[in-house]
């Protein structure tokens, strides 16, 4: 998977997402538009289906391990791919033409394991309010043990790579992995924190690269994933609201 950023668009392309989905027809294709108001309901629904690629500022090529690949097509596969680009143009520069996207390299042999992408974090919404002039404001995103019990296979999932993403106020991100065990003496659930899956206390917005983990980490049903984001708004006089860019 390789990013293709149009020359001159580098200051404006914030991130790129590619989805595959069903439920579209020919009337939905060939038409772009503002994601909030100018696309069909079918297209909008596609943006909540299967994510197959993500790129953000500073990212470069990503190569899957030899035993893993993302399945595309086939008689029962999704029939449409939709690209969503987020632009950041606070100065309202006009006359920009952009053809950025993502280049996929595919093979015709299915590999041992199918890949997938798991999103974990804080909801992107203005209800996320970061106070001004603080250097240690934290938010938490949680994939709880009931969630993993419900949606993860009995053998668990195997995490082989991660990509951390926040905006310019972000200064550190940690993805914690907790196992659960029943505390029989009090009838409560106890949590044990394992080795973090990812921990970057010096996050840099300009280097958002998907990276391979030193070794695969298995997350079992009943485990908990906890994402902690740290923000620094030193020097800002107003609140910072959550948003797309």
Automatic annotation (TrEMBL):
Residues 2-93 form the Copper type II ascorbate-dependent monooxygenase N-terminal domain. Residues 113-244 form the Copper type II ascorbate-dependent monooxygenase C-terminal domain. PROSITE patterns: CU2_MONOOXYGENASE_2. Its cofactor is Cu(2+). Keywords: Copper, Disulfide bond, Glycoprotein, Metal-binding, Monooxygenase, Oxidoreductase. GO terms for cellular component: extracellular space; secretory granule membrane. It holds the Pfam family Cu2_monoox_C. InterPro entries: Cu2_ascorb_mOase-like_C, Cu2_ascorb_mOase_CS-2, Cu2_ascorb_mOase_N, Cu2_ascorb_mOase_N_sf, Cu2_monoox_C, DBH-like, PHM/PNGase_F_dom_sf, Tbh/DBH. It comes from the Eukaryota. GO terms for biological process: dopamine catabolic process; norepinephrine biosynthetic process; octopamine biosynthetic process. It comes from Amphimedon queenslandica (Sponge). The keyword Metal-binding applies. GO terms for molecular function: copper ion binding; dopamine beta-monooxygenase activity. The lineage of its organism: Eukaryota, Metazoa, Porifera, Demospongiae, Heteroscleromorpha. This is DOMON domain-containing protein.
């Amino acid at each position: 998977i390789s990013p293709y950023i149009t020359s001159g668009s580098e200051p404006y392309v914030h991130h790129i997402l590619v989805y595959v989905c069903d439920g579209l027809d020919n009337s939905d294709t060939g038409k772009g538009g503002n994601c909030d108001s100018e696309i069909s309901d079918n297209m909008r629904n596609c943006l909540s289906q299967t994510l197959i690629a993500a790129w953000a500022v500073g990212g470069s090529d990503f190569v899957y391990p030899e035993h893993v690949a993302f399945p595309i097509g086939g008689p029962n596969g999704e029939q449409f791919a939709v690209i969503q680009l987020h632009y950041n143009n606070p100065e309202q520069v006009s006359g920009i033409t952009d053809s950025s996207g993502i280049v996929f390299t595919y093979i015709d042999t299915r590999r041992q394991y199918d890949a997938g992408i798991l999103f974990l974090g804080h909801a992107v919404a203005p209800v996320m309010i970061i106070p001004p002039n603080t250097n240690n404001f934290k938010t938490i995103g949680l994939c709880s043990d009931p969630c993993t019990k419900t949606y993860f296979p009995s053998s668990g999932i195997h995490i082989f790579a991660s990509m951390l993403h926040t905006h310019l106020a972000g200064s550190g991100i940690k993805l914690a992995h907790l196992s659960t065990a029943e505390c029989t003496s009090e009838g409560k659930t106890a949590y044990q924190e394992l080795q973090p899956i990812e921990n970057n206390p010096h996050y840099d917005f300009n280097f958002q690269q998907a990276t391979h983990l030193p070794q695969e980490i298995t997350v079992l049903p009943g485990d908990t994933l906890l994402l902690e984001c740290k923000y620094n708004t030193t020097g800002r006089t107003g609140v910072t609201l959550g948003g797309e860019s």
